[in-house]
Amino acid sequence: MRLELGFIPIHDVQFADTSRVEDGVLYVNAEDIKALVLKDEHISSVEVELARPGESVRITPVKDVVEPRVKVDGPGGMFPGTVSRVKTVGQGRTHVLKGAAVVTTGKIVGFQEGIIDMSGAGAQYTPFSKTQNVVLILRPQDGLSAHEHEVAVRLAGLKAAMYLGELARELVPETIETYETLPLLEGLKQHGDLPRVGYVQMLQSQGLLHDTYVYGVDAKKILPTILYPTEVMDGAIISGNCVSACDKNPTYVHQNNPIVHELYARHGKDFNFCAMIITNENVYLADKVRSSDWTAKLCEFLGLEGVIVSEEGFGNPDTDLMMNSRKISEKGIKAVLLTDEYAGRDGSSQSLADAHVSADAVVSAGNANQVITLPGMDRVIGSEAYVGIIAGGWDKNKMEDGTIMVEIQAITGATSEVGFGYLSAR
Amino acid sequence: MVKEIERAGIPVVHICTVTPISLTVGANRIVPAVAIPHPLGNPALTMAEEKALRRKIILTALKALSTDITEQTVFDVE
Questions:
Q1: Which helix (H) or strand (E) holds A245?
Q2: Does B59 lie at the interface with A, CB-CB under 8 angstroms?
Q3: Contacts of residue A323 in chain B, CB cutoff 8 Å?
Q4: Nearest chain B residue (CA) to A323
Q5: Burial of A22 by CB count in 10 Å (0-12 exposed, 13-18 middle, 19+ buried)?
């Protein structure tokens, strides 16, 4: 499967009467987006605001971040099975408004939502301080359940991103990158002398607003399966998560998964990146056992010699991570694990809820319990009313001078377990 | 807590969903629970079925408590 990504760089965003892209500026007609979003009867009102890098702006509570993309050639459309009709994607040509993002906020859906600061200390911790953000402030109809509210906000973000992505359809990309994965046997013929490497992505699927969707299927109901890695670039996996902001994968991160991109960069040179395996993190032990069994079985079946495993979230999924580590290792396959840590504010506590001796090559994306002081901002998009109750905040964490103290757990993408962040030991 | 109570000489059964963590942290008698959000219940069942399920888990735990063991043991609910 072969996919070309055509990148149209965006370095500014402005309101205008007509939505369009000109000279790297994304012009947005807010009324068009409002009309699109309000077609959903579950949404009672929506406001559109813009947030640019360097501005004294805080967006909170952040639910999801989505990148505007459009399929210009090849089967299917963006977010298949959720917004576009279900169809296997990942081939042909896709255009990307690189540098732009849709961010959803408004009345909080679940208590684990995030903060994006566009400047100041907090901006150093979130990758979305560097994007030109079109922010939707969504208000649900009264009486909606939390789950209905989550669906409505999720779909609103995806639809707005598709609307903006559509503006890139006729544009000439500044750069084009090509990604190709051959069917397994053909790939082995072409790269027969190279080590066979795979990527195991664990998807958050604990339920209770901790959900991920694969081609529209709730990930807690999947058995581990195989994807061509280009499928995720076309929105095959989307976030329905209100899990801790620092280490969940917003839809944007699924579209731009750095592990996939890094593996492609060395594919055919240092190793043969054979396939991507997705698995889940369920709350029943039987599911954990079954999914880790199947993950190891697929690694073995594909003849992999080494895999990278990324976790999403923390706590009981640490056990899924360790079960995957143990079972993959027992097949004689090397595994490197990517996770983050909840090691207490001083970093001296146990980092993960579970451990296993096979986990001997682990990359940490940072300590989510680290405390940071965020300066007051001139403008808040959404509401600061929730900064004391979101995960990583605490009661009365807003000081009289307007500063806010939080654990970096509360900052969207701060300890991304797929490495889509800035924290580094270097 | 399991380990501290046992240290005082009182045997403990740990009823929990994620038994691998219980094994990692060193509980000796472990009984698997239903699911993390509802360890001793199951909203998919009727009230009568759920009560029967609870009874089974508790009886398994009582059996575990009165069983001599020489190593960490998971007692499956039958």
A1: none
A2: no
A3: 20
A4: B20
A5: exposed
Average pLDDT of the residues of chain B? 94
Query: pLDDT tens digits, residue range A118-171?
Result: 999 999 999 999 999 999 999 999 999 999 999 999 999 999 999 999 999 999
| ipTM of this complex prediction, to 2 decimal places | 0.84
The per-residue b/e assignment along A44-54, b for 16 or more CB within 10 angstroms, e otherwise, is eebbbbbbbbe
Q: Provide the 3-class DSSP secondary structure of residue A338.
A: strand
Token code pair at residue A92? 């042909």
User: Is A246 noted as a catalytic residue in this protein?
Assistant: no
Long-range contacts of A384-389 (CB under 8 A, 24+ apart): A384/A58, A384/A60, A386/A60, A386/A61, A386/A108, A386/A111, A386/A113, A387/A60, A387/A115, A389/A108, A389/A111
Strands annotated E in A165-265: 175-180, 196-204, 210-214, 217-218, 225-227, 237-241
C-alpha A404/C-alpha A414 separation (Å) is 16
**pLDDT computed for residue A120 by the predictor:** 97
Angle between helix A146-165 and helix A30-37 axes, rounded to 10 deg: 140
How is chain B split into domains, by residue range?
A: 2-70
